[in-house]
Design brief:
Blueprint (H helix, E strand, L loop, with lengths): L1 H15 L2 H4 L3 H10 L14 H11 L5 H9 L3 H8 L2 H7 L5 H12 L10 H11 L5 H27 L1
């Protein structure tokens, strides 16, 4: 999974740049950035929905902080994809919603990092995801539905960064 690893490294690098807007929660978001796609590991896949599989693993096996598990569970529009998969009740029942600013920060990092780890505008990232999946595919439908909220999250973080100067 070299591309997934490159993406993860890029997401974590992006998270490290947010220390000024995250303050004492910076380490939590950096950890979530490193772990956000852990559920893609074939060894962890149970439902086939990586945010839920990853968060369950972190909670059950690693006894990770609930805030970290919630960030992994809900990252990048996961609730919309969970609805598409019929897993929304499981996701939201098992993992409470993280603090909105922290979820926006993780979404920003994920949605501005391409599969090869390069940083790019959110619109390019969303377009790239949509090209990998056919229009009827669950991921294509989910990204299409969640795009407005994903863009909104990215813009919110960009606004916070710009306010810092």
């Amino acid at each position: 999974m070299p591309r997934r690893w490159a993406h993860t490294q890029g997401v974590a690098g992006q998270a490290e740049t947010l220390a000024g807007v995250l303050g004492e929660d910076a380490d939590l978001v950096v950890a979530a950035a490193w772990l956000h796609d852990i559920g893609y590991s074939p060894a962890l896949a149970v439902t086939g929905f990586h945010p839920l599989d990853g968060a369950r693993y972190l909670r059950r096996v690693k006894q990770a902080d609930e805030r970290l598990c919630a960030l992994v569970a809900h990252h990048s529009g996961a609730v919309v994809e969970a609805e598409e998969r019929g897993l929304a009740a499981e996701l939201t029942g098992e993992f409470g919603f993280p603090r909105p600013d922290l979820l926006e920060a993780l979404t920003y990092c994920d949605m501005t990092t391409g599969p090869d780890g390069t940083h790019l505008p959110v619109e390019q990232r969303l377009a790239e995801i949509l090209t990998r999946y056919e229009p009827g595919h669950i991921v294509h439908r989910s990204i299409t539905r969640s795009s407005p909220e994903l863009v909104k999250a990215v813009r919110a973080v960009e606004d916070r960064l710009n306010a810092l100067g």
